[in-house]
Predict the 3D structure of the following.
Amino acid sequence: MTKILDLLDIQGNVIKAYGRFSFPCARYLLLRIQHGERGRAFVAAIARQVTTAVTWGDGPGQIRKPLATTNIAFTFAGLQALELPEASLRGFPPEFVMGMKMRKAILGDNGPSDPEHWDPVWHGEQVHVFISINGQQPDYLEQRYQWLLGLIAQSEGGVSLLRGHRGDHGAADLPYQEARAVMENGKLTSKEHFGYTDGIGDPVFEGLPGSPQRVEGRGKQTVQGWEPLATGEFILGHLDEAKEYPRAPAPLSLARNGTYMVYRKLHENVGSFNDFLDREGRAYPGGREQLAAKFVGRWRDNGAPLTDAPDVASKQDWDRRFMQAAPAEKDRMLSAFTFDQDADGAKCPFSAHVRRINPRASLQTTPGAFDTPGALANRRRILRRGLPYGEVRDPQRDDGNHGIIILMMQADINRQFEFVQQQWINYGNDFRAGNDKEIILGNHDAEYPSRAVLPVPSESDAAPYFLRNIPRLVETRGGDYFFVPSMTALRMIAEGSVDPT
Amino acid sequence: MPDKSGNAYALTILSPIRAGHLDEIAYADVVRSRLDAWNFLENSPMARVPQTYLCRYFVLDDVFTQSLGGGDVFGTWQDFLSIFSDRARRRALPHEDHLKSRYLVFSCNFHGDLDAYLRGMWLAIGNEIRHAWEFCYAFDQVRNADDFVAYMKKCRLKASLFFVGSNDDPLDEQLKALYLKQEFGKFVVAHQGVPAAQLQQAYRDFIARVEPANLAGPSWSPGQYRLRQENQ
Amino acid sequence: MSNIAGKAYAMSVITPVRWYMSWINKLFFWVAQKRSSTLKGLVTLSLIHYARWVVIGRKQFPRLHPDQPQEDLRYSYMLFFSNFNGSWDQYVDSFTFSIPSGLDLFWKWNIRYPRSVPLTPFHEYIRYNQIEATHYYSAYPLASSNDVKAAKKVAQALAGFDARCHDAEPEAFLKNYHALLRDLQNDLGDMRPTPIVSMSAQQVEKRRQRDVRKEQERLAAMGEERKHA
């Protein structure tokens, strides 16, 4: 059964991580609708340039890869401001209606991550619209941005661009959030500011274009092998893993082929990270780089998964094979691993990043206990988009402008993002780790100093290593919940013709 | 016998509440608000009842009529009959069922023997029991622990399946084990990398402090919901 | 009222079953007790402290006094009481995905049970028939079922280690200590108050704390008055 998605109807940023498609720079804009009708006219003008998910090509009848992409999404307040009918509005889920700020207790956005510390743009008037522009080069990005400014001006006060994004050199009033891939030795990388290679394990679901081999490690782990996840886990209007249609607002054409997006600006405390790594790295038997690998579950330099390369010796072997491999095989080596041979966490610790955000089949601790091995993980997957922002000028300091902008796409914010954030990142019971948090993203604080165990093989002589007093390495600096409409819905919203009667 | 699983006991009590009222509030509603008031005390009275693992109280006002769509083992037969009889089609909807009395429901998981547990409960929180059960039929005849045990056995329902997910150890052993897990975890983390002789001495001090074999020694107290300062 | 006691959540569900079908239910329960494979999914889920199913025959509601009216019911009833960890959604979801076959066995004979897959009708069924606890108590609100199980393992391992190595030579002590740590490496997670499970629960908890404080102040003030009376 091969499912075909209507790619022309789905926005491009849902299906594609633009960074991987050679759009290494981006700007994220936040706007406010001041006037319903003029706001809708603005949305209509934008809609004509919105990038869809269609597969690009240079052949006849194909759509060529654009120089810059544009995509748009709305908060609940934004949909209200665009005067969507009340009956449609009431069909949106409660967490989306509340918005991310009000969910801070569930998300663990406390202390330095508390909304009171977020960028000023999140403090003023409620954000209504999110527009992202990605460019193949900075010039194209700027051109698209100017075009956008032109449309804003033409709206005659119908929409306004919200200022207040923080940036370099203490700037706090910028009109957009800048993001771009990290450069190393003049070359573009997919790294983030702690030095890790990011964005490897993006979920594969039915209907997603791309080579079928990519399902290995990215789909769901079943008794028969790797299979794509149900489309409805990520896109509304399609069957999900529970064999039903995800809950969605009325009418169908408003919801179908749309999805929800969680935008989060995550500041990285580079100084604390390096300090922590140095300190623990001196004591840790495997050394600094292996310790860094244990934090995430992948080696920093090339993303080799710890389950396949748990120590320096096996890493060298893995590296050799990796360098000789063709691109498809490289991809498979990076993503097609399981925790099946790592029940005690001796290779990849339970509190490592990749294990917490996607435990694969490892929560089925007794073989054959569940209906399918990935039963507890299949409905907690998230599409991750976005890019790093800023640059590290002083690796000893925390207060520079550096972090990542993450855009998470899923059909159900509460069941997917919020669950992973609350139960798997800031808590550890499902991993039998008590209250221990995920090392990189957990909201560690000094009130209850955090620890994490790095287990060793039971047949070894060594003692397990305990990380102690883990500092808060990542801080939330802004964000909200957005609805990413399909192209059909977008045009209807712009027309003002949504009608759930 | 399904009420017991090893040494753990599943007690299900349904005590019928008298019809009648106190100052224009139905007895059953008075019972409910008396139970609710326990939520505002420093801790639950059940913390004082020995061997109580987890328990709950509520007032059962009535049963529900299950009229939502669903599967039905007689569904196909009913559908077949409905071809011939409209009355059969309409009768397929579940009947409305109602209780004539309201019940105080007490569902408790504890360690050990039923009689001993109930006696312990009467001894520890007799006042609260009388306060909560005051308006139940025949409870005015309950004067002492023996009466209480007999009364509860008349209200008792047998479980068909009792699943124990953690264990059936005596409560004080469970609490001591939790205390030791917490303290030992902190010890391990604080003494990582310490050389052998020094570690051993620190360990001996640790053992002397936590007294693993002494259940009456330092431990978590029942119902403890805050980490105590010195234990942090 | 509260369904939450620290890390534990109380779920109470009452569902009607045709009185002449309740024996099948009891049969399945009996089989489940005997065959450990039926409950393997539940055991692996590891979320449950204690859970029970009770079948009340339509004539079995306790009658204690001649003044108490005789119950006159069409159906018998099944009571399900569970004490589990995590949120309601996570728990009910896990039944749909991890052990749906086991679940269907227990509820199949109940009136209009919708089966546990797909998800939403099952969610509705549970919510429709759920009764909230007025008062819920856990002896260890800071501990999940996993914590309780790990604690027993730690206590036993520590006792064994202490008996063997309390007075050993330092080098032997260290070697055995490392072995002990390897044995317990995944059982020493820190225990603290649970993350909140819902916004409403958090609001209720805040109000409750405020009321407890007020009550304490009131009692303290009364105490002061009496002193000076």
About this structure: Residues 65-97 of chain B form one domain. The two ends of chain B are 42 Å apart (CA to CA).
